[in-house]
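<tokenise_the_fold>
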Amino acid sequence: MRELTYFVAMSLDGYIAGPNGEFDAFAVEGEHAAPIWERYRGTAPTQLAEAAGLTIDGCPFDTVLMGWNTYAVGLPALPNPYAHLKQIVFTREQSSPEGSEAVQFTNADPREVIRDLKAQPGKGIWLCGGGQLAARLRTDIDRLALKIQPVMFGAGVRLFGDTGYAPESWKLESMQSFASGVCLAEYSRA
């Protein structure tokens, strides 16, 4: 069965974006970038990867899931951000923008969609963002891959939105730290 991996950058205080969706405080360059890309190649928008000379071959995922706010970060310039992957955007209100024909927009229950995806053959499934979407899929996530950044936001979009108190155990699979202060922590469900 395919696995759902929540691979995302987060601040030391557990935010994946600021109050208005800001994420520019996260370090995207530095000595951590190449090893993380090697492990999770193909997790940059297609056009950006090509412009930077990064290969997307060998991506551990063939499908990417995101909420509307995560998707909208690239608009209007990138209406088809991950052209090399099957893209599913969960939204209740927004319509598909021009140029996004390859992107699937849905208001279906994310848990039903992920269960259907997991039953199909293929590579891994990447949840790339949306704290509220992650909260809805919390019990369906098999792996966490957290790029922990040496910054604190104080407010914003939490890793798992506003789920309330609900303890879950996870098993640390690997932890890689870099001189930049960034750490890649990988967990599987305990």
User: Anything to note?
Assistant: The CA atoms of residues 67 and 90 lie 5 Å apart. The chain has a mean pLDDT of 96. Strands lie at 4-10, 15-17, 61-67, 86-90, 103-106, 124-129, 143-148, 157-158, 170-177, 183-189. Residues 60-124+136-150 form one domain.
